[in-house]
């Protein structure tokens, strides 16, 4: 019998007592937290006990000392990376997840073209939110699974790596996140902040920019909650001596005009070619400015903006994406000609039922609709269709005419289309009075 199952072996470190303590609103000691996370990562504590503990944390929270111990225990469950062989400042960006949030794809090349090294470790989409890895894999041949030596070598070579988390980085989070996903315990500030920050602190960064989403399509629906999440993560970064800046950005309606995988790659390429929708540009440039400032390669936001714009207008950022795609095994032809990306065979348009102003374009419903079409996964083991998705043809505040197409669905499977359509229809609302579009930037925390 393992110590976790046998209280007699160490009465101070007993999983049932730890669960009961948190369930009853008590405070766990750092030793208890280290032990329970370590034993869970080592597979010595079963999922049913960890689910009970995580639910107790979800309900009762963690105080500052408990949270610090929780993050540290997660971080120590695996390897810590070292990119000291790369002279440039190493700055990553992480988003708490949204719909149409393809910012990492244009941002990484733009920032790397300005001389900041970007070791970007991204995740997959789950539920209504998309994931950078799934989008990248719409590029034929692109490899997102890199082992640490290859990751290190590519970062030195290109200054930008777009990859998934390696097996050995924070293995406790790998198990815990899957467990939380299956037990309704994702939307918790201590659990989200410890999950994200343990992984980011294990990357050995010089700085981190967080895009904390706010609104219907975000984990945190209310601005106060997302600010608390941002403050918590910035505080964790500070405790590790890593500068972290968080920007709170809107996720009430999807970002940009494309929701899916191949279509989001195409929209990102458009940004790198000097085009792209205004909201996507605003968020991308704003996060890029923060990354250059944290990397010490620009004196102020204005200079940072000018450098990023020049990286785009000179073609350097586009060429950086081509270089990274080639380095990671992808077909660069699709970057030069995005019409070669996977595409769905059929289209269906949802039109405005009446004239007026678009007052709602709900990110949550549209994210779920895209998932139902096959652009995302309901369960971890589901596969993705890179060609399906949604094109948003009108945004909140736009005047619309009866019969005008508002959303174009790219679909491959009729049954999936039938599941997605009611959600798309529900997501849209037309009113008589014009409403102002929601502010894109809700604030910042540093
Ligand atoms: N992203 C993560 O990595 N973890 C969470 O808990 C939520 C979003």
Tell me about this structure.
With 446 residues, the chain is α/β, with parallel strands linked by helices. Helices cover 44% and strands 15% of the residues. The strands form four sheets. The protein has a four-stranded mixed beta sheet with strand order 1-4-5-13, sandwiched between helices. Strands 6-9-11-7 form a four-stranded antiparallel beta sheet. The chain is globular. Helix 2 runs parallel beside helix 4, helix 3 packs across helix 8 (171-183) and helix 4 packs across helix 9. The protein has helices at 15-23, 30-41, 47-60, 64-75, 104-112, 132-136, 148-158, 171-183, 189-201, 223-239, 262-272, 278-294, 301-313, 316-327, 333-336, 363-373, 414-427, and strands spanning 91-95, 118-122, 160-164, 207-214, 244-250, 258-260, 346-351, 356-361, 389-392, 399-400, 405-411, 428-431, 441-445. The structure holds uracil.
Produce the secondary structure layout:
Elements: H1 15-23, H2 30-41, H3 47-60, H4 64-75, E1 91-95, H5 104-112, E2 118-122, H6 132-136, H7 148-158, E3 160-164, H8 171-183, H9 189-201, E4 207-214, H10 223-239, E5 244-250, E6 258-260, H11 262-272, H12 278-294, H13 301-313, H14 316-327, H15 333-336, E7 346-351, E8 356-361, H16 363-373, E9 389-392, E10 399-400, E11 405-411, H17 414-427, E12 428-431, E13 441-445
The chain binds uracil.
């Amino acid at each position: 019998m393992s110590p976790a199952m046998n209280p007699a072996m160490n009465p101070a470190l007993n999983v049932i007592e730890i669960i009961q303590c948190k369930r009853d609103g008590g405070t766990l000691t750092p030793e208890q937290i280290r032990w329970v996370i370590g034993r869970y990562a080592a597979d010595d504590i079963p999922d049913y006990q960890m689910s009970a503990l995580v639910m107790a944390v979800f309900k009762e929270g963690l105080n500052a000392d408990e949270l610090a111990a929780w993050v540290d225990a997660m971080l120590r469950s695996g390897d810590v990376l070292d990119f000291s062989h790369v002279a440039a400042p190493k700055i990553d960006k992480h988003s708490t997840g949204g719909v149409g949030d393809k910012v990492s794809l244009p941002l990484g090349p733009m920032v790397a073209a300005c001389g900041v090294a970007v070791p970007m470790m991204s995740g997959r989409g789950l539920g209504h939110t998309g994931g950078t890895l799934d989008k990248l894999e719409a590029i034929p041949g692109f490899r997102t699974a890199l082992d640490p030596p290859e990751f290190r070598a590519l970062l030195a070579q290109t200054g930008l790596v777009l990859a998934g988390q390696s097996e050995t980085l924070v293995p406790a989070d790998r198990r815990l996140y899957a467990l939380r996903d299956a037990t309704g315990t994702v939307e918790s500030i201590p659990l989200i902040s410890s999950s994200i920050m343990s992984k980011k602190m294990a990357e050995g960064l010089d700085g981190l920019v967080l895009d904390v989403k706010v609104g219907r399509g975000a984990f945190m629906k209310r601005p106060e909650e997302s600010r608390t999440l941002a403050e918590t993560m910035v505080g964790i970064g500070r405790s590790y001596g890593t500068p972290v800046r968080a920007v709170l950005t809107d996720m009430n309606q999807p970002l940009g005009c494309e929701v899916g995988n191949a279509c989001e790659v195409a929209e990102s390429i458009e940004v790198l070619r000097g085009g792209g929708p205004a909201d996507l540009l605003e968020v991308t440039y704003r996060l890029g400015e923060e990354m250059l400032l944290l990397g010490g390669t620009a004196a102020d936001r204005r200079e940072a903006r000018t450098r990023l714009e020049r990286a785009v207008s000179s073609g350097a950022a586009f060429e950086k994406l081509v270089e990274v795609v080639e380095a990671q095994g992808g077909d660069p032809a699709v970057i030069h000609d995005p019409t070669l990306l996977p595409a769905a065979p059929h289209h269906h348009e949802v039109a405005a039922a009446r004239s007026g102003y678009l007052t709602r374009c709900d990110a949550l419903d549209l994210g779920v609709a895209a998932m139902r079409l096959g652009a995302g996964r309901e369960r971890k083991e589901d596969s993705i269709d890179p060609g399906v998705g949604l094109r948003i043809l009108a945004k909140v505040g736009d005047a619309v005419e009866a019969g005008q197409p508002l959303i174009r669905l790219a679909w491959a499977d009729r049954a999936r289309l039938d599941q997605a359509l009611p959600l798309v229809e529900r997501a849209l609302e037309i009113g008589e009075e014009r409403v102002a579009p929601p502010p894109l930037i809700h604030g910042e925390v540093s």
